[in-house]
């Protein structure tokens, strides 16, 4: 778990949530100790969901405050994306992380950004969360790069890529994804 | 709804995990099972210790597979299970192999997993590889090592600090995120070395920092350096300000905003410095992105608290934000406008807000109400429209917190703006006619009882109050009875009629209501049991000058161990127990152990009293009046740590020296403090209590007692020498040697000052307490305090000099204000209540002047307070 130092510390993400249209978990990842138990986490998710439910976050990412936290969020179909940070965090950094997460998921689900597709590819979503933030610290914010790192896996089924270099794999993945998007 | 996990069940999935043990691994199948396990964990399912161990061991088998996708899931699973130390050993070799793999993805992920689950001992084994990874040409590998370093620095700082050369090299990396992670780690390694941070900032602000995230970090570090270095006095320039200003023209919004925010938060920022930052924030206000508008308006809102004029340029943009879809943005815009608005714009603003209030949530409404309250205090002439607004929203629907915020605001306006009083009281009366919150009704009734009788026509409130007796629940009825009695006691013309009403309350079906009515009728009536009118009022309505917390503790003690004689309220200590600092720190830092003053428990005073009364020599000194906070007599981290607590009795003082021996090889015996009181003429030493033995790291006390003139706040300076016999200790056996050597250790001096004779005792309503003191005891004078650092510093200095309790939060000075009034209350030795009203003013040259007004129960004490200030 990351320790939250003063303002001089690195930008810190407290959690990333992906909920469905009823506020239920699709995938969540907590990086801070602010919500020590599962029930505390669920309560937080519930209040975040209720508070944002009626807003329109479908074209631009929206933003709100809750319990001294800043939450940026974006909705697509029946999926709700949230990124939470402390109340002195730079809002635009949080928004960048949200955008990276959202873009990567869009690529990985081949534009079918909806709950069922997300659950069917839950392994990709979980790997994606793992590649965005490590223990609260931002690892990568570019959706293409994140999806590329995750996708080395999804195209692996037939071809043994184990000895391929990551840049090669990335190139293949991008190509693969672009092709699938253009179809 | 269809879900691939429909009907999933933990037991079944754990059974399925047996496929991990198959000799011929089916990678795809194994991946699916891991996904199911991760799904369960993600939904909040927990595994028992045995289940987790089982899964962990099974998962380790999967390292045999060369399937890259499966390996990724294995990494994820190990991190989620977070295995125990003895389990970690099982995977260590597999992970170390992956760390040295030719596949970059393996290297990066193995580093992250291993660093997550490792402990210090393993870390030394893999340190070499981590250092290499930091400078790896693959950015993903380098970032993995750097980010792991940031986490490990918390647990194993001494190891991570050895990597600075590699980290420094990584700061120069061409890969954007590597530079970001390296910068973050390098700064954390060096954060306690000001010079190094300053050098880092100097070199990087000149060069090219590539990623916006790294740029944001650099801005944060730069602000830190600016904060610590201050303004250049000759040129008036701030170092690095140019860099921040340049960042306002960066292409990434993230960086522009970070820089703008950093500029607004500079200490003592000037208008010239602020202007460019405000300009970019103003542009953000009309952005199409809600996040950008929010960030900008939130920052401007903060700026408006200290520099309202600098924000007025944005008022037009702010006004258009009142209709923003995002209500957080709208609320921030409104409250900013309320802070920057001038007297002429108030009415227009209120009109806009009225429409706005109906469609926001309570939490936003409270923020608005609070902003309106401060606006009203700023423009008292506008009280009419603001009070009207408050009374209107008071009538509308709303929850408790919201209604409470409105009522509190009206009460504050009534208290501070005399003209608003009568109207405000009537608004409150109307509110309690239909109020569902018992707490608010009783608070208002209490307030009405204090303020109502002093108005021009007190009789008009009676109807509202008596209605409560007829219509409400017992709690409200009881407090209405008290309010009626207050009117009866204060307004003679109403007395007979009030008595009629009170007599009716004698038939109430609630005990408390009947009891109160009986009490008031018997004490205020003609056949009164008390002698004088004044005494009665003091008894019934006078303030309770004892902290309720102390009262509660004393009563609990009394009930636990009841005595023959009745409980004596005078036995309750009056000192306000300040929250010890230690408590705040406790959560963050470990106690330093050595040399740290014994953490004062919440009831330090009780503990001292108990300790002193247990020493027969001091038992005859009578009741302990006050104990000071510990004063350190040694520097931190010296051989012996000593601090002193001053205990004040009526005609004695006792110094309690808390000593700690920080040398393991020594045992101290016969420890005493030799006190030289030649600069404290009124004191004469009457006895000491030596400390027999002081072993290593076991705090203990020695005492010295002095006699002084009775009831007199004698002051003086004391110099101290610690004298003891020191014996060498064999640390392997812990046995001291037989022979010791006499030795002395010089301690710092300390003083007994006037503040030691004043107890911090707060009053709940300063104005009432002040007015209840005889005006003839008032002593007023003016003092020049010379040039001071700031107004706040001057106010604090006077509070500390007097050692009195600040009331109603008046110890806090608004930044940038040029004048301040501070209210203090206390009890002077001899149990004399004393109140102080301090008015401060500061001019351009930072010269501070102060007017000091004192009232007390004894004129000589008022004079004594002036003497303290005059000689301080």
TrEMBL record, chain A:
It is found in: Cytoplasm; Golgi apparatus membrane; Cytoplasmic vesicle, COPI-coated vesicle membrane. The keyword Cytoplasm applies. Residues 12-152 form the AP complex mu/sigma subunit domain. It holds the Pfam family Clat_adaptor_s. Keywords: Cytoplasm, Cytoplasmic vesicle, ER-Golgi transport, Golgi apparatus, Membrane, Protein transport, Transport. InterPro entries: AP_mu_sigma_su, Coatomer_zeta, Longin-like_dom_sf. SUPFAM superfamilies: SNARE-like (SSF64356). It is a peripheral membrane protein. Its main location: cytoplasm. Oligomeric complex that consists of at least the alpha, beta, beta', gamma, delta, epsilon and zeta subunits. Belongs to the adaptor complexes small subunit family. The zeta subunit may be involved in regulating the coat assembly and, hence, the rate of biosynthetic protein transport due to its association-dissociation properties with the coatomer complex. PANTHER family: COATOMER SUBUNIT ZETA-3, ZETA-COAT PROTEIN. This is Coatomer subunit zeta. It comes from Penstemon davidsonii.
UniProtKB/TrEMBL annotation, chain B:
SUPFAM superfamilies: ARM repeat, Clathrin adaptor appendage domain, Subdomain of clathrin and coatomer appendage domain. The keyword Protein transport applies. The keyword Iron-sulfur does not apply. Its main location: membrane. Residues 607-752 form the Coatomer gamma subunit appendage Ig-like subdomain domain. Residues 11-526 form the Clathrin/coatomer adaptor adaptin-like N-terminal domain. It is found in: Cytoplasmic vesicle, COPI-coated vesicle membrane; Golgi apparatus membrane. Residues 577-600 are annotated as: Disordered. Residues 577-586 have a biased composition (Basic and acidic residues). Keywords: Cytoplasm, Cytoplasmic vesicle, ER-Golgi transport, Golgi apparatus, Membrane, Protein transport, Repeat, Transport. Gene3D superfamilies: Coatomer, gamma subunit, appendage domain, Leucine-rich Repeat Variant, TATA-Binding Protein. Pfam families: Adaptin_N (PF01602), Coatomer_g_Cpla (PF16381), COP-gamma_platf (PF08752). This is Coatomer subunit gamma.
């Amino acid at each position: 778990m990351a320790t939250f130092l003063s303002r001089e510390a690195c930008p810190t993400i407290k959690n990333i949530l992906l909920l469905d249209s009823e506020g239920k978990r699709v995938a969540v990842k907590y990086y801070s100790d602010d919500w020590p138990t599962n029930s505390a986490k669920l309560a937080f998710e519930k209040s975040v969901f209720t508070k944002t439910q009626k807003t329109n976050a479908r074209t631009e990412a929206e933003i709100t405050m809750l319990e001294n936290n800043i939450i940026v969020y974006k909705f697509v179909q029946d999926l709700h994306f949230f990124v939470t940070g402390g109340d002195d965090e730079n809002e635009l950094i949080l928004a960048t992380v949200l955008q990276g997460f959202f873009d990567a998921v869009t690529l990985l689900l081949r534009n079918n950004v909806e709950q069922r597709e997300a659950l069917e590819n839950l392994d990709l979503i979980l790997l994606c969360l793992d590649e965005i933030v490590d223990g609260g610290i931002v690892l990568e914010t570019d959706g293409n790069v994140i999806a590329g790192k995750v996708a080395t896996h999804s195209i692996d089924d037939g071809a043994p890529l184990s000895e391929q270099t990551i840049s090669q794999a990335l190139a293949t993945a991008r190509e693969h994804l672009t092709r699938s998007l253009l179809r | 709804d269809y879900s691939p996990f429909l009907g999933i069940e933990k037991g079944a999935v754990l059974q399925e995990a047996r496929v991990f043990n198959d000799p011929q691994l089916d990678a795809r199948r194994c991946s699916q099972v891991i996904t199911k396990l991760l799904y369960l964990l993600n939904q909040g399912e927990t595994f028992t210790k045995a289940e987790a161990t089982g899964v962990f061991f099974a998962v380790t088998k999967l390292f045999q597979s060369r399937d890259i996708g499966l390996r990724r899931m294995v990494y994820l699973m190990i991190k989620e299970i977070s295995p125990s130390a003895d389990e970690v050993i099982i995977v260590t070799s597999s992970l170390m192999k992956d760390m040295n793999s030719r596949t970059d993805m393996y290297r990066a992920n193995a580093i992250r997993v291993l660093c997550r689950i490792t402990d210090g001992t393993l870390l030394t084994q893999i340190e070499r590889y981590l250092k290499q990874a930091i400078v790896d040409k693959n950015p993903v590998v380098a970032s993995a090592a750097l980010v792991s370093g940031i986490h490990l620095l918390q647990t194993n700082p001494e190891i991570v600090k050895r990597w600075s050369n590699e980290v420094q090299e990584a700061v120069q990396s061409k890969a954007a995120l590597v530079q970001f992670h390296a910068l973050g780690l390098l700064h954390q390694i060096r954060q306690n070395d000001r010079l190094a941070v300053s050098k880092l900032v100097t070199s990087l602000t000149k060069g090219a920092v590539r990623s916006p995230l790294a740029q944001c970090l650099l801005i944060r570090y730069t602000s830190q350096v600016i904060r610590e270095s201050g303004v250049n006095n000759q040129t008036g320039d701030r170092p690095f300000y140019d860099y921040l200003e340049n960042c306002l023209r960066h292409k990434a919004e993230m960086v522009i905003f970070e820089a703008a925010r950093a500029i607004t938060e500079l200490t003592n920022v000037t208008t010239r410095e602020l202007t460019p930052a405000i300009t970019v924030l103003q542009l953000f206000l009309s952005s199409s992105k809600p996040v950008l508008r929010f960030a900008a308006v939130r920052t401007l809102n903060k700026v408006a608290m200290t520099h309202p004029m600098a924000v007025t340029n944005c008022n037009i943009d702010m006004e258009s934000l009142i209709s923003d879809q995002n209500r957080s943005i709208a609320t921030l815009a409104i409250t900013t406008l309320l802070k920057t608005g001038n007297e002429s714009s108030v009415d227009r603003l209120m009109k806009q807000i009225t429409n706005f209030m109906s469609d926001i949530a309570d939490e936003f409404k409270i923020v608005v109400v609070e902003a309106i309250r401060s606006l009203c205090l700023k423009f008292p002439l506008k009280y009419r429209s603001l009070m009207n607004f408050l009374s209107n929203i008071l009538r509308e629907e709303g929850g408790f917190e919201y209604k409470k915020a409105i009522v509190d605001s009206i009460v504050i306006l009534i208290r501070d703006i005399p003209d608003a009083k009568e109207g405000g009281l009537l608004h409150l009366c109307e509110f309690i006619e239909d109020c569902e919150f018992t707490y608010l009704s009783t608070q208002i009734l209490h307030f009405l009882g204090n303020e109502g009788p002093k108005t021009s026509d007190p009789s008009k409130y009676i109807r509202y109050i008596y209605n409560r007796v007829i219509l409400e629940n017992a709690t409200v009825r009881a407090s209405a009875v008290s309010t009626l009695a207050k009117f009866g006691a204060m307004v003679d013309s109403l007395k007979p009629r009030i008595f009629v009403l009170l007599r009716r309350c004698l038939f109430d079906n609630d005990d408390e209501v009947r009891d109160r009515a009986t009490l008031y009728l018997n004490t205020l009536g003609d056949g009164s049991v008390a002698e004088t009118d004044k005494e009665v009022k003091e008894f019934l309505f006078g303030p309770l000058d004892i902290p309720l917390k102390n009262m509660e503790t004393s009563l609990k003690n009394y009930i636990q161990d009841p005595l023959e004689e009745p409980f004596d309220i005078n036995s309750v200590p009056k000192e306000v127990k300040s929250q010890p600092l230690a408590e705040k720190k406790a959560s963050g830092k470990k106690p330093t152990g050595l040399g740290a003053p014994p953490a004062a428990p919440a009831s330090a005073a009780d503990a001292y009293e108990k300790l002193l009364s247990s020493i027969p020599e001091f038992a005859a000194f009578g009741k302990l009046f006050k104990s000071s906070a510990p004063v350190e007599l040694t520097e931190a981290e010296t051989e012996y740590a000593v601090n002193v607590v001053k205990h004040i009795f009526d005609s004695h003082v006792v110094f309690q020296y808390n000593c700690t021996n920080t040398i393991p090889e020594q045992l101290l015996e016969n420890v005493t403090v030799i006190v030289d009181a030649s600069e404290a003429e009124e004191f004469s030493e009457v006895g000491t209590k030596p400390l027999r033995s002081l072993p290593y790291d076991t705090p203990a006390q020695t005492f010295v007692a002095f006699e002084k003139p009775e009831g007199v706040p004698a002051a003086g300076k004391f110099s101290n020498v610690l004298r003891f016999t020191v014996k060498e200790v064999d640390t392997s056996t812990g046995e001291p040697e037989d022979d010791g050597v006499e030795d002395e250790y010089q301690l710092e001096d300390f003083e007994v000052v006037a503040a030691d004779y004043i107890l911090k005792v707060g009053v709940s309503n300063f104005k009432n307490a002040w007015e209840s003191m005889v005006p003839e005891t008032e002593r007023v004078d003016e003092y020049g305090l010379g040039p001071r650092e700031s107004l706040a510093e001057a106010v604090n200095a006077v509070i500390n000099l007097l050692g009195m309790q600040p009331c109603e939060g008046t110890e806090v000075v608004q930044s940038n204000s040029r004048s301040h009034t501070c209210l203090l209350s206390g009890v002077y030795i001899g149990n004399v209540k004393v109140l102080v009203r301090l008015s401060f003013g500061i001019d351009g040259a930072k010269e501070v002047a102060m007017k000091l007004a004192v009232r007390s129960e004894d004129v000589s004490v008022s004079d004594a307070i002036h003497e303290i200030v005059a000689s301080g």
